[in-house]
Write a structure and sequence with these properties.
The longest helix has 17 residues. It is built from 6 helices and no strands. It has one domain. By secondary structure, the protein is mainly alpha-helical. It is elongated.
Amino acid sequence: MLTQERADMLTSFISSDLERGSKLLSLDAEEALKQINAYGNDFTLSELAEYGKALKAEVEETKGELDPEALDGVAGGTLIATLPIIIGLPRIPTPFPSIPTTTW
């Protein structure tokens, strides 16, 4: 299971070098995992899959226009900031404007 701490570690690793991060996100999961762990990390394939799923969900969530209810949440900020915690997803900020479709 991917914990918030582990998701933050992976986000930090990927975003610390944007060129490396972009390359990792374009690889298949097994190859990306090998390269990530070659830097001394110990992530599992299932953690990487959960991370990719949450990352894709967040990218999809940010597409399009906000409905009035969501806009109210953005103005207040509390609901939007805590929603991933409420529904059990790790909050994964992405440093990349466009996520490749092959991300894990």
